[in-house]
Amino acid sequence: MLPDPRATVTGVILAGGRAERMGGRDKGLLPLAGEPLIAHGVRRLRPQVAELLISANRHHDAYRVYGCRVIGDDPSLRFRGPLAGVLAALRVAETPFVLTAPCDSPWLPADYAQRMLAALERERATVSVVYGEGCWQPVFALLPVVLREDLAAWLAVGEGGAGRWLRRHRPARVEFADRPMLFRNANTPEELARLGMSG
User: Which ranges of the chain have pLDDT less than 70?
Assistant: First the structure.
């Protein structure tokens, strides 16, 4: 029987980047369809997991409004990319697994956690990662908290690249062909405008 992600999975929305292509504005707090991007992610992911974290390096008070525990990167790793936020989540999670999603992909499916966990169980893999549009989508990943020291060591020697680190662990490939909107994100103001039209 498949474990219930609402008992075994901690979710984390990654909102800790510099958002340089957004003019340095805090991406998770930018408006989409009348509310901040982070609000969409919280509403969709929180019902699927035991606890939802928000990984942020700025404006913690603004993020706490959404009722989630807000965590920041280790000071030595701030703005080192999504893996720094993943490591912070792995260090505080109280469940066996952590499920990641970026703050700028607001249309997460209602069965995201369930499908990621099912793939992990089915393939007896260590991690599961979304694959779509012809490539891996490494910021959409489910991984066990026991990998935290492995990730810390990877970052300590100056490595980066979420995709490269995850592929070392031979991930189960999870495809959401029926939900291509999962991958729509916003790195520029123009992409954010298009995202609003497609929701």
Answer: 17-25, 78-80, 180-181, 183-199
User: pLDDT by residue (tens digit) across 44-63?
Assistant: 999 999 999 999 999 999 99
Q: Residue 54 to residues 3, 15, 107: CA-CA distances in angstroms?
A: 23, 7, 17
Determine the structural domain holding residue 27 and report its residue range: 5-198
CA separation, residue 196 to residues 17, 173, 183 (Å): 21, 28, 14
* 74-107 tens-digit pLDDT: 877 766 689 999 999 999 999 999 999 999 888 8
92/173 Cα distance (integer angstroms): 26
**E strand segments, 16-156:** 31-32, 35-36, 51-56, 69-71, 97-102, 128-132, 135-144
Q: Domain count for the chain, please give it.
A: 1
Express the helix, strand and coil content of the chain in percent, nearest 5 each: 45, 25, 35
Please name every residue paired with 97 in a beta bridge, in sequence order, or none if there are none.
9, 144
CATH number of the domain to which 190 belongs: 3.90.550.10
φ/ψ of residue 4, rounded to 5: -80, 120
The answer to whether the CB of 191 falls within 8 A of the CB of 185 is: yes
